[in-house]
Amino acid sequence: MPNSAGQLRLCALEDIPEGTSKGFTLADRRLFAINQRGKIYLYQNRCPHLGIPLEWQDDEFLDSSKSMIMCANHGALFVIQTGKCVAGPCSGQALIPVAYNLLEGSIFIDQT
Ligand code: FES
User: Fold this and answer.
1) Residue to mutate (ligand 1; options 47, 63, 91; most atoms within 8 A of CB)
2) Closest atom, ligand 1, to C-alpha of 71
3) Phi-psi region of 44 (alpha: psi -120 to 50; beta: other; left: phi over 0)
4) Pocket-testing residue among 73, 84, 86, ligand 1, by greatest number of atoms within 8 A of Cβ
5) Domain count, the chain
6) For 69, which DSSP code?
7) Model confidence over 14-25: pLDDT tens digits?
8) 24, 27, 89, 104: which has the fewest Cβ within 10 Å?
9) Which band of pLDDT confidence, cut at 50, 70 and 90, is reported for residue 1?
């Protein structure tokens, strides 16, 4: 359901507990979000070097230490705060961030 600004509601903040990640499949977009220390980071779910989704298991986008984003395909590691790849075949490239708004405990994104 769009908000008054025409934005799409992605989920409630509480759907992404601290230290976890969550994937979303919209009509034509795949996204994922991470909650790290109370801040939400939202990216396109697309590895920069092959353009394929990062996860093998639903909602699993983090490495075992929960401190980096990890591509399950080749083990590439990305900084949660910036999306920059620091290890792996796409080193030096970055995930594409997605802008969002927090409103009344929910995450909203533009529809395009
Ligand atoms: S597809 Fe993610 S590092 Fe290759």
Assistant:
1) 47
2) 2
3) beta
4) 73
5) 1
6) E
7) 999 999 999 999
8) 27
9) low
- Among 8, 16, 22, CA closest to 38: 16
- 54 Cα–ligand 1 center, Å: 7
Q: Token digits for 58?
A: 């639903």
Q: Which domain holds residue 99?
A: 8-109
Q: Does a structural domain hold residue 2?
A: no
What distance in angstroms lies between residue 52's CA and the mean position of ligand 1's atoms? 7
Distances (CA, A) of 44 to 22, 86, 108: 12, 17, 15
Q: Is 75 in the pocket of ligand 1 (CB under 6 A)?
A: no
**Is 82 inside any structural domain?**
yes
CA of 60 to the centre of ligand 1 (A): 15
Instruction: Give the ligand 1 atom nearest the CA of 75.
Output: 3
